[in-house]
Amino acid sequence: MEFNAFETEGIVVEQAGSGFKRMPVILHNMRPDEILVEMKYSGICHTDIHGSKGGYSALRYPAVLGHEGAGIIRAMGSDVQDKSLTVGTSVILSYNHCGGCRNCLSSHPSCCSDFEPLNISGKRLDQSTPAQLPDGRKLQSQFFGQSSFLKHSIVSQYSVVPCPYPEDLAIYAALGCGFQTGAGTILNALRPSIDQSLVIFGAGTVGIAAIMAAKFLGLRQIIAVDVLDDKLRLATELGATQVINSRSVGDIAHEIQNSTRGGAQFAIDCTGVSSVLEILLDCVCSGGTAVVVGSPKPDFMLNVNPEKLLHESKTLRGICQGDSIAKQFIPEMTKLHRSGHFPLQKLCTFYGIDEFEQAIADVNAGKIVKPILRWD
Ligand SMILES: [Zn+2]
Ligand SMILES: [Zn+2]
Questions:
Q1: Other C-beta atoms lying within 10 Å of the C-beta of residue 365
Q2: Cα 89 to ligand 2 centre (Å)
Q3: Is the model's pLDDT at 360 over the cut of 60?
Q4: Is residue 104 situated within a structural domain?
Q5: Rounded distance, CA 297 to CA 50, Å?
Q6: One domain, residues 172 and 235
Q7: Which of 152, 154, 184, 350 is most buried, most CB within 10 Å of its CB?
Q8: 90-93 and 138-139: which strand pairing?
Q9: How far apart are CA 291 and CA 267, in angstroms?
Q10: Each residue of 139-177: pLDDT tens digit?
Q11: What ligand has the least distance to the C-alpha of 102?
Q12: Cα(98) to centroid of ligand 1, in Å?
């Protein structure tokens, strides 16, 4: 399909904090290395809600967010490298990367040197965007290379992964961010051994995916921390060996040190909450690793004592997108689902596109884990 201008619709954030609004959108100037995808499903991630409120300093508005799209290819640019992709292919969308920097070329595309401009700014690297609103305002439509809150979107070729089981596209829609981030943190980045202990803060999509991955590896001690008992029950069902409701415990770091006899080997924050980040290093033992996975507030600063870090040989690190190569890891996760290790159907709740406000309200209230919007 060739087109000069193409009218579709999307859920737009006109300015930081103004909320989401369904609006007509015009697409134009698809480039030879891009792909037009008709969205069938769009997962909602906390990153989208964070972004709608001005949570990212690099993001400009008006913008279309959404970075867990799943749909069907409707047009292919002539220079797309992956020749397995064609018009009609069912695809899962994931984060964007440049494909040419040192980290992209050494199998760590989530450490791409242009990760922030390519994923967070909502624009292409040259600052252009292929979308506008009917009144002529330029619309940022390249969030994570995809802006999947659009019914049709012009997507970076690096964001497009063929879905190995198109009949289950709905259930796999959120593999490209939330599940990949949690599961990849365990299976790709940390690779703990079964006798190493793990504490996970936040039993949402990312935390639950990390718990399922840790259970798959057979870890004997997996501690989940959250403020909601329903989420902790789910964490137990899916692999946590111990749960802590942080509202009912005074000193969480102390509690974790007791439970793990001196601190866990790994403490992973999936919440971005400042008070959790402040105690993360205290939750790990000497030689242990504290991991930032959830999105913190942009202006929050962590006080770290380097002398203590040295004498306790601790590591503080960030892991973005689970250090995953989406084209490899998404198919691996579909296999884990099909073999019963990743019961995604227990975690996903579907909403019609006209119910997007309810979906956001439900995930904000902690009533559900992963909302997925279904396009009509
Ligand atoms: Zn790169
Ligand atoms: Zn996400």
A1: 9
A2: 23
A3: yes
A4: yes
A5: 9
A6: no
A7: 184
A8: unpaired
A9: 6
A10: 999 999 999 999 999 999 999 999 999 999 999 999 999
A11: 1
A12: 4
CATH of the domain at 149: 3.90.180.10
Distance (Å, whole) CA 41 – CA 69: 6
Q: Is the pLDDT of residue 14 over 60?
A: yes
Q: Which domain holds residue 366?
A: 5-176+343-374
Residue 335 lies in a domain: no
Give the model confidence (pLDDT) of 195-218 as tens digits. Answer: 999 999 999 999 999 999 999 999
Residue 210 CA to ligand 1 center (angstroms) comes to 25
Same domain? For 156 and 95 the reply is: yes
Q: Which ligand is nearest to the CA of 112?
A: 1
Is the domain of 119 the same as that of 148? yes
Evaluate if residue 291 carries a pLDDT over 60. yes
Judgement on whether residues 190 and 168 belong to the same structural domain of the protein: no
Distance 376 CA to ligand 1 centre (A): 35
111 with 55, same domain: the answer is: yes
Q: What is the mean pLDDT of residues 64-76?
A: 97
Distance from the alpha carbon of residue 282 to the mean position of ligand 2, in angstroms? 27
Over range 171-194, report the average pLDDT: 97
Clarify whether residues 27 and 164 are in a common domain: yes
Does 327 fall in a domain?
no
Q: How confident is the model at residue 5 (pLDDT cuts 50, 70, 90)?
A: confident
Q: Mean pLDDT across the stretch 266-290?
A: 97
The answer on 355 and 206 residing in a single domain is no
Smallest-distance ligand from the CA of 95: 2
Same domain, yes or no: 217 and 312: yes
Q: What would the DSSP string read from start to end of 151-185?
A: SEEEEEGGGEEE-S-GGGTTTTGGGGTHHHHHHHI
CA 198 to ligand 1 center in whole angstroms: 30
Residue 334, in any domain of the structure: no
Sign of dihedral through CA atoms 264, 199, 174, 42?
A: negative
The amino acid occupying position 9 is E
Region of 150 on the Ramachandran plot (φ > 0 left; ψ -120 to 50 alpha; else beta) = beta
Q: Assign 298 a pLDDT band (cuts: 50, 70, 90).
A: confident
Mean pLDDT of all residues belonging to the chain? 96
pLDDT at position 297 over 90? no
Per-residue pLDDT, 2:
58
Query: What's the domain count of the chain?
Result: 2
How far is it, in rounded angstroms, from Cα 326 to Cα 156? 13
